[in-house]
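hey can u run this one w/ glutamic acid bound, need the structure tokens asap thx
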Amino acid sequence: MICNDQGTLNEMIEAAKNYTQFGKVADYIPALQLANNDTLSVAVYGGGKSCMKAGNIEETFTLQSISKVITLALVLMDHGEEYVFSRVGMEPTGDPFNSIIKLETHTPSKPLNPMINAGALAVTSMISGRTARDKLDRLLQFVHDLTGRKTINFNENVAKSEFETADLNRSLCYFMKQHGVIHDNVEELLDLYTKQCAIEMNCEDLAKMGYIIANEGQDTETKQQIIPHDIARILKTFMITCGMYNASGEFAIRVGIPAKSGVSGGIMASIPHGVGIGIYGPALDDKGNSIAGMKLLESLSAHYDLSIF
Ligand code: GLU
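ok here u go:
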């Protein structure tokens, strides 16, 4: 069983760690360059007190694109499927996460899915709340409910560093505003988005969020339904089709687990009706995925036969 085989997990993380040398930490957000290229950590959460960990598990990191799954859940709960998917599509793009090309060539020019930056910005603009602070507080409260840890906050340095350099994301916003996809003040939307991306946690927190999504949105301990069943299903589907950037197809074949990565090097994976996995390995491959994290998931999937296909 994946949940009680610490020895295998230790061996796998040691083997996967060798791949960090072939990757590189993200540098387009200056604060992310400070990460340690060689580090790798993992937590496997199976509900209750059952959590196995290996590697530098005390390290924390920012969610970056993994937050897109969480905001999508929140806006689907706020507004329902019909409204949300009238403003953002459901199709993979095959393009890099920050590409603008499909916004221009696709009619209508709504973003193709919520996992690329354009789609995620449109999703963030739908978070309900009277003020920007209300919206951020609702998002943080949701993260507290998912992880059971009330002290989780965003990292101010990382948020500021991204806000100051996010001109590509600004362009996506202005393009979408011109085409009526969003109506927000762009600077305010970017402020919220960069704080959302800078929400900081450790692997265990990430594995817990992955576990709730894996288990139909339910905290199996308290039986609390934190995310409605149907929305948890939608999240897992997007994780499979678009979760690993433009490597999602290959990842589905090699690993076959719903997962979402972020440029900080985090990966959240959700085995349907099974464990949640949180990984942190900031050395990225050329698509923006944690290079050693992907290897680790590949080994776990092969060893425990975890592919859903
Ligand atoms: N905050 C990052 C950005 O918008 C998230 C990208 C990612 O993790 O893929 O560029």
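Residues 90 and 113 are 5 Å apart (CA to CA). anyway lmk if its weird
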